[in-house]
Amino acid sequence: MSSTSPHTPLLKLGLIALATSVSAGAPHSRPCAGPTNAGFESGTLEGWEVVSGDAFGSKSVVNVQTYWDGPFHQDEDFFVLGTAQAGETAVGELKSGSFRAGSVMSFLVSGGYDPDHLYVGLVRESDGKILLKQTGINDEAFLRITWDTSDWRGESVHIVIHDSNTNESWGHINFDDLRVGARAKSDGPGLTFNVLGQQVNQQSAGEEPACTLFEKDQLRPQYHYTQYTGWINDPAGLIEWNGKHHLFSQYNPDGVVWGPMHWAHAVSTDAVHWRELPVALYPSETENENDESGAFTGSAFSDSKGMHLIYTNFTDTNAHPDAVQETVIMASSTHGINFDLYGGNPVVAGPPKGAPAFFRDPKTFHDPTDDTLKMVIGATNNVDGQVRLYRASDTFSWSEVGLVYEGTDGSTGAIWECPNLLPLGDKWVLFYGGLSLGWYEVGSFDGTTFTSEKRGLLNAGPASYAMQWYKDESGRDLAITWMGNWPTPKWPSRPNGWAGQQSITRELFLREDGGLGHRPIAELDSLAIGKTEDLGRRKIKAKTHRLGSENVARLKLTVDLGATTASSFTLSLLESKAEATLLTYNIENKTLTLDTTNAGYGQPGMWEAEIAPEADNKLTLDIFLDRSMLEIFAGDGTVFSATVFPRYQESTGISIAAEDGEVILKDTSLTPLGSSWC
Ligand SMILES: *[C@@H]1O[C@H](CO)[C@@H](O)[C@H](O)[C@H]1NC(C)=O
Ligand SMILES: *[C@@H]1O[C@H](CO)[C@@H](O)[C@H](O)[C@H]1NC(C)=O
Ligand SMILES: *[C@@H]1O[C@H](CO)[C@@H](O)[C@H](O)[C@H]1NC(C)=O
Description:
The protein is mainly β. Helices cover 2% and strands 45% of the residues. The protein has 3 helices and 46 strands.
């Protein structure tokens, strides 16, 4: 199980010393000084003016450090907390004193995401025009936004903090530390901010190849699949058909938050280099703008009639009170690009009579026990998760077989989503999502009923949910997981116009201990650019050894545990003088711990898993770094997936340190990887 400790204090290395306070004074003689009290360190709204409403006032300036999910990450002590004066629902506007724009400015923002009603605005004094706007991200932890203001350099401007959102939840915006001029870009030498906000947002898709656009966005992974704009979650419809791998994603093109679900579509010849195709599935048309109906998760199969998508038609029963909430419908294509809805939909009209409405995520598989096409569907009896089984008699005719498996003690959740059932080696594997975690069970299946022998977590890290399996045309069992999860509010890429990412493609196998293992597919080797640095056999003593500086790379280590005398060793990844992701292997209890408490804008916490040493008493780690993404594959088949989102451009360091003795590394290599979009 995972454990988080979001309250560990941040090592604010150097930050406090470097942050010089902006002195009040005549802005005209100091073009880059910014407004008075730009970081609220007076503890008051001195220099700011309440323009309207009661959302802001003398109680708005606070110096609290943490909220329910961790640190605010304000600059120094004080900041404006949008709820402090009059709660979530209050509205109003706060305005800074006037100052001259330089060529760049930056500030911290957090709070609700609502581009029209919650924003920080840059206003030109001469005509009152709002030049730039930035909303929150549905998180209380601050992000630094950087604005290119060179078009207005020298002009008199001010900042407004605007709240016209009356929602009970995320109806507020927080603000801190406006910086104008050179200080806007960094916290001093060696700590240059990654750019979030308008400088990236402004580019429109289609102007440049994805390769260039994705490269420019400093937080954008280069080979983990992302959508250029919008929100994605579950991977769906995974299939290799006529030599091409297809990856669909649950997709909201109209915002960086979840919304009416479409299916985004991408194709690849190697399951590494994806190319976007037109949106494959749309939500049903609606007149009601609050209608959340959509094309939910599902799967793909092919036969002589073409390629078929079979998925959940989710109907928002608030907008359609008499409808069945979830049915199974199909869409087909003869060429794999455009999909036509089947005329006889739905193919399954809903859950069996009397069962709860929750009934989703059909996943097909070929069942060798009776040579038929079957599918599993996630369900519930309101106490335990359930998996229902259906059988096809032809492409569009499906009938219920029964309940293939259900929980008995609620310990993996009261509802199960995204089930997959597959033969693997001489066993069967059932995996599903419950309690916002991915679970697998290894056991047997007789064509009707699954019997579990062993249970475990699909992923030891924080950023994985809704994994989907598929068998490729060479017979390998491959899988892709959403590198995100529901409990986390961390989507720091929102200001850059996108949210959500898919994992690299992995191959599934049965581990030595009978559990489900993951290893990266061989095709990922094609991402290598430049030379692999062979770091050879090394003896690491207590002192920290630098292994390199890369953030789009693959690091492979083999540790000779027999010859190692240290009690533990720690790899420091995505490291600069202010932050790092730590990976510690404890040799005595064989535990690998991932620590992101001081790593960046991503989910802070600690996650651990026991890693069994391999043959010859060695430990291998195969680590994929992709700017903001981190995937760590241990030799025994354990994987940790995490979204880190470093704050600083210099956070690329890789080093290792041994504790109480020596670590013997053999076959260490560091390979720079390129973009899968180029
Ligand atoms: C929050 O407010 C916005 C507009 O101010 C509205 O469009 C949206 O539906 C509201 N969301 C909720 C969950 O109430
Ligand atoms: C989804 O279900 C709703 C409600 O039953 C129905 O109106 C709609 O046509 C269905 N959509 C599709 C694509 O079949
Ligand atoms: C293993 O040991 C380390 C260091 O003492 C400790 O932090 C960790 O919690 C231990 N893990 C387990 C599973 O015992």
